[in-house]
Amino acid sequence: MDRMAILLKAYEVADEIKSTDAFKDLVYYGTYMQTELKKETEAYVKAMTKFNEVQNLGGTYHPDFKQTILELGVAKRALYETEAVKKYLAAERAIQGILDDLSRDLGQIVSSHVKVPNEIGLFKEKSSCHVG
Fold it and tell me: Which residues form a coiled coil (predicted)?
């Protein structure tokens, strides 16, 4: 099979993934968050930016560290506790699970010696030596 045929099959698989409910939810809630949760998103980004500045300027020894952590926690909670973000993250995990399974299956189909990540993203210990 030539490279172009493999790419065409990959596009077919991508189209199948895009037709799943999880992908449709991912797109819907991603758009929803960009439009309807703009205030919460901007507050979170602002708090995260301030936190990163404090981290770069002294971390836990910075005089504003405690206040910055509290502000970041409040902004993150306000954003992440919305139903839209919860559903978006669930859809994202579902899509990632599909891609992980596909990657693992494809690697095993090619060869049992191909290293593929397990459920937690680590590579299984197998010998890469093909002696014998």
Answer: none
Please name the residue that has the structure tokens 């037709």: 19
CA distances (Å), origin 114, targets 3, 7, 10, 105, 118: 20, 20, 19, 11, 12
SS3 112: coil
Residue 91 burial (10 A CB sphere; 0-12, 13-18, 19+): buried
Of the candidates 118, 108, 116, 88, which has an alpha carbon nearest to the alpha carbon of residue 23? 88
Q: Where are the domains of the chain?
A: 21-36+82-124, 38-76
Could you count the other beta carbons within 10 Å of the beta carbon of residue 92?
Answer: 16
C-alpha of 17 from chain center: 16
Take residue 38 and report the two structure tokens written for it.
């703009």
Residue bearing tokens 């990540």: 117
